[in-house]
């Protein structure tokens, strides 16, 4: 067997093995969640989680990880870590690349407290109509809080990657990216909301929104001698007949 053929064979086998592992984990997770939902008491739920490893989540495994141009986040929630069931919390570990930004979003069912492991970060939120904008600059060892449902963001203002840890007080906190969801509405609704803007501009903006962890602020890029480059754009709102982009743009 040629060496190149051998490498391709090994790579294919590794992919199949990884897929099998993913399928096995998904089946196990589904079985555990079904058992936990049926368990009448907390002690009964403890018995459902009968393996010691049912209480272990590996944040380095790639499970629950979303990767974008500006960084990546790994979320442990009840969907991938059943031990969180009925415990009222979830956790996210995030890494932002130099000048990366976790774009504005909300958690509809949870308040978040965030801890910055290294570097420097700008973070801000707006809680509701009539509320003032709250912004802070965090340095290593500091944290901040984002109230449930508030629109909030974080951006790495430095030229090195930063790591943060976020804890949310719901095992199913949810996340809603503001730009992707807003521009996923019917284009004429978005157009009317923005006032004097054309449907062509709405369509262009709708298809150009980057993923949640994006390349961030211009002043940071200039300071660090970086360029924005290509953004990943896989998290845009799916289109149906009800919110389809305009065919006849004026």
UniProtKB/TrEMBL annotation:
<keyword id="KW-0479">Metal-binding</keyword>
<feature type="signal peptide">
    <location>
        <begin position="1"/>
        <end position="18"/>
    </location>
</feature>
<dbReference type="InterPro" id="IPR006045">
    <property type="entry name" value="Cupin_1"/>
</dbReference>
<dbReference type="GO" id="GO:0030145">
    <property type="term" value="F:manganese ion binding"/>
</dbReference>
<dbReference type="InterPro" id="IPR001929">
    <property type="entry name" value="Germin"/>
</dbReference>
<comment type="similarity">
    <text>Belongs to the germin family.</text>
</comment>
<keyword id="KW-0964">Secreted</keyword>
<feature type="region of interest" description="Disordered">
    <location>
        <begin position="229"/>
        <end position="250"/>
    </location>
</feature>
<protein>
    <submittedName>
        <fullName>RmlC-like cupin</fullName>
    </submittedName>
</protein>
<dbReference type="InterPro" id="IPR014710">
    <property type="entry name" value="RmlC-like_jellyroll"/>
</dbReference>
<keyword id="KW-0464">Manganese</keyword>
<dbReference type="InterPro" id="IPR011051">
    <property type="entry name" value="RmlC_Cupin_sf"/>
</dbReference>
<dbReference type="Pfam" id="PF00190">
    <property type="entry name" value="Cupin_1"/>
</dbReference>
<dbReference type="InterPro" id="IPR019780">
    <property type="entry name" value="Germin_Mn-BS"/>
</dbReference>
<dbReference type="GO" id="GO:0005576">
    <property type="term" value="C:extracellular region"/>
</dbReference>
<keyword id="KW-0732">Signal</keyword>
<feature type="domain" description="Cupin type-1">
    <location>
        <begin position="57"/>
        <end position="203"/>
    </location>
</feature>
């Amino acid at each position: 067997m040629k060496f190149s053929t051998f490498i391709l064979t090994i790579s294919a086998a590794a992919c199949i093995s990884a897929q099998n592992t993913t399928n096995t984990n998904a089946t196990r997770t589904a079985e555990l969640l079904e058992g936990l939902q049926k368990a009448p008491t907390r002690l009964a739920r403890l018995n459902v989680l009968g393996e010691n490893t049912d209480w272990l989540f590996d944040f380095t495994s790639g499970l629950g990880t979303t990767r974008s141009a500006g960084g990546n986040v790994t979320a442990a929630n009840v969907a991938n870590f059943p031990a969180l069931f009925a415990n009222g919390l979830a956790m996210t570990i995030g890494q932002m690349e130099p000048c990366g930004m976790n774009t504005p979003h909300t958690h509809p069912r949870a308040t978040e407290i965030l801890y910055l492991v290294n570097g420097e970060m700008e973070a801000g939120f707006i809680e509701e109509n009539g509320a003032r904008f709250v912004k802070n600059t965090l340095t290593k060892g500091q944290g901040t809080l984002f109230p449930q449902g508030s629109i909030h963001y974080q951006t790495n203002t430095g030229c090195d990657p930063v790591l943060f840890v976020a804890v949310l007080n719901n095992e199913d906190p949810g996340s809603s990216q503001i730009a992707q969801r807003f521009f996923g509405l019917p284009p004429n609704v978005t157009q009317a909301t923005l006032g004097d803007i054309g449907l062509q501009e709405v369509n262009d903006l709708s298809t150009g929104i980057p993923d949640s962890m994006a390349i961030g602020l211009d002043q940071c890029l200039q300071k660090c001698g970086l360029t924005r480059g290509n953004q990943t754009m896989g998290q845009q709102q799916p289109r149906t007949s009800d919110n389809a982009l305009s065919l006849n743009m004026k």
